[in-house]
Amino acid sequence: MTQPLFITFEGPEGAGKTSVLQALIAELKPLLGDDLVTTREPGGNPISEAIRAILQPEEDNGMDDRTEALLYTAARRQHLVSVVLPALAAGKIVISDRYVDSSLAYQGGGRGLGVDNIWQINQFAIDGLMPDLTIYFDVPAEVGLARVMANRQGKIDRLDKEDLSFHKKVRETYLSLQSDFSDRIKIIDATQPLTEVIAATRTLLFEIMATRKESL
C-alpha cells in the first residue's frame, strides 16, 4: 500500500482556487492515474450534493445560521465516509476543494457563530481527520467579489450576495487560521496572475508528493 495524502484547497469567494485545481488536475491525472482522487465540499456524493442544493440556492431561503453550520457539517461527514476515507485507506492522494477550514471561516467568522463553536460541532463529523496540507488562496474581499460578479458562470449563490463586511470577516478568519496553523496551512497570494498562482500551487503539491514518495 502507498502512503496516502489528504490535501485541501481553501479561500474566500473569487480566490480562483477551483480554477487552479482544474488546471492542475489536467497535469496530475496523467502522472498519478487512479492514485489521484479529486472532490469538493459540500458534495462529492449523492447525499452531500443534495445538502449542497439546500445550502446554495440562488435566492435566500431564510435558513438559520446554526442550521446552515449543521448542514455543512452533515455534508462533510457523509463526504468523508463515502469518498475521502475509502480513498485514503487505499493509499490514494485526495485533493478536496474545501474542508473544515471553510466552516471555521464562513460560519465561525463570517456568520459570527464563533470559531471554537464551529470547531466543536465538526469534531464529531471529522473524528480527528485533518489534512496533511491545506493551500489557502488569499485575496482581498473587494477583489474577490469583483471577480465573482465579472466572471462567475451560471448562478451567483447566497454566499456571494452577502455584504462586504461578511466577506471581510471570512478572510480575516482564514488569515488567523493560517497564522495559527502555518505548518499545515500554506498561503498563496491569489492576486497574482493565474499562471503564477498555478505555478506556486504546483510547487507545494510536488513538494509534499515528493515527501510521500520518499517515505515509501
Automatic annotation (TrEMBL):
One of the record's GO molecular function terms: dTMP kinase activity
NCBIfam families from the UniProt entry: DTMP_kinase (TIGR00041)
Entry keyword set: ATP-binding, Kinase, Nucleotide biosynthesis, Nucleotide-binding, Transferase
Protein known as: Thymidylate kinase
Gene: tmk
SUPFAM superfamilies (UniProt xref): P-loop containing nucleoside triphosphate hydrolases
Keyword Nucleotide-binding: yes
Domain annotation Thymidylate kinase-like: ranges: 9-197
Similarity comment: family membership: Belongs to the thymidylate kinase family.
Organism annotation: Leuconostoc holzapfelii
Tagged with keyword Nucleotide-binding: yes
